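Re: folding output
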Amino acid sequence: MDRFSTWKDLKGVNMAFLPVGSLEQHGPHLPLGTDGIIAEALAGRLADIFAPAYLLPLLPFSSSIEHAGFPGCVSLKVTTIASIISDVVESLAFSGIKKLVIVSGHMGNHLLRNVVQELNYPRPRVLLLPSRHHWERAYRVAGISSSPSRDMHAGESETSIIMYLFPGAVRSQEMKDVDQPERQLLETLGMRAYTETGVIGFPSKASAEKGAMFLNALAEETAKTVKEFVEIG
C-alpha cells in the first residue's frame, strides 16, 4: 500500500514504513536528495517483503545542520523532528496501525534513536533502521573498499546506489575522492572544516553493480530485524 492507496486498501494493515531522508549536499556529483532516494528504495523493498504494509510518503527533511556551510541544505530542529515522528505514530494508531518502521537514509540522524526509545515506552511500537550493523554488513557484501566511517558521505557506497537506481543523476565528471579519517570536531565545526567538495569517501570506486549488491544486502539484513520486531506481537 502506498500514496495511491485508498482507505479501503488499508483495512487490516497493522504495520507502516516511513522513509526519512535529508536535503543536504552530497558533493558536486550526487543529488541533494540522495538520502531520501536511498530511504525510499529500501522502505519500498521492505514494504513488499512484509506486505500488506503501508508505505508512507518520504519525509524529505531531517537533521542536517552539519551541512549548512553548503548551498541547498534544509535542516529541521530536533524538537520539530521529534514532534513529527510522534504525530505520525499517533495518527497511525488511530487507523489501527500499531507498528511503525522508520527507514532513515541519513546516518546523521542520531537523534532518532532517542526519539524511538521514548516512543517505545511502555510498549514497543517503533523500529529504526538501518543500524550500524546493517550498514557494515552491506559494505562487506557489496565489496565496498572502505568502512562506513572512512566512506561516510557521498562516497563509494552512496554513489554506487544512485548509479544503480538513477544512473543519469550521477555527474561522474565531478567525482573527486576525499580521504579525511580524522574528524573529531565534525559536529562542532561542520563538514566545511574537513572537505571543500562536501565529499568524505571514495566515489571514484563506485559502480552500479556494487549499488545493486549493497541495496540487496541492506534489504536482506534489515528484513531480519523487522521480522524480530513483528514477532514481538
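--- second protein (sequence, then structure) ---
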Amino acid sequence: MSFTLQGRTTLIAGASSGIGATFARAVAGAGGRVILAARRLERTQALAREIGSAALAVPMDVTDEASIAAAFDTAQAHFGIVHGVVANAGIGTGGRSTDVPVTALRGVIDTNLLGAYLVAREGARRLIASGSGHRHDGRIVLIGSITARQNGTGDALYAASKAALAHLGRQFAREWVRQGINVNTLEPGWIPTGINSTWFGSERGRRDIAGLHRRRLLAADALNPMLLYLLSDASAQVTGSTFTIDDGQSL
C-alpha cells in the first residue's frame, strides 16, 4: 500500500519548527506539495527554500480567521486545491492551575482548540466548494497529545484542550462524512520540541524521561508514517478515529 501524496497539496499550520517542520519535509518527500503556514514567516521561508519548488511559505495566525482565509487564498492561487490540512499549531503553559494567569489560559484555548477549529473549517469549506463530495480526497488531521488521557500537574488546560481536540475531530468527521472529507486525530507522546526542551533538559525533566517505560522521548519523525497514511488515498475508509503514537509512554 502506497502512502504517496503525488498530485496532492497539504497545508500544515504551525510549520515553522518542531514536528510541523518535520511533517513538511515528510509530505514533500512523499511527492506532495506543501504549504508552510505559521506566524514566523522567516522560518517557514527558510524551510521552503530547503524543500524547494514543492513548498510555499504563507503567514498565518490560527487565532485570526481573516489570516487563515488569506493563507488559503495564497495557497490555492499557487498550487490549486488544498487536499489535506494538518492542524498542528499549539502552545502550552506551565504551572499549577491555581497560579496560571488567565491571559496564558486564553492563549492556550485560542491556539490549540479554536485555532484548530478555524483552520479545519476553512479547509473543509474550500474542499466542499471544490467538489470533494465527488472526489473523496479531503483529508484533515488534528494533532492532539497523549496528555488528553493522562492526569498530571502543570498542564491542566493544555491537556484539556487536547482532549477537546479529539472529540472535535469526531464531530467534524460526522459532519463532513458525506462531503468526501476524512477527519482524524493523531495523538503523539512526548517529543523534544521548542515547547518542552527547557523542561526535559532540567533535572526533573530528565527524571521524567527515566520514568518512561523505554526511558526515551519519541523521535520527531516517528509520526511521519501515520501522518502520510492519513493524508493519502490509503486511508480512504478511515475517518473519525484517534491514533496514539507514543512509544508506549502512556501504558
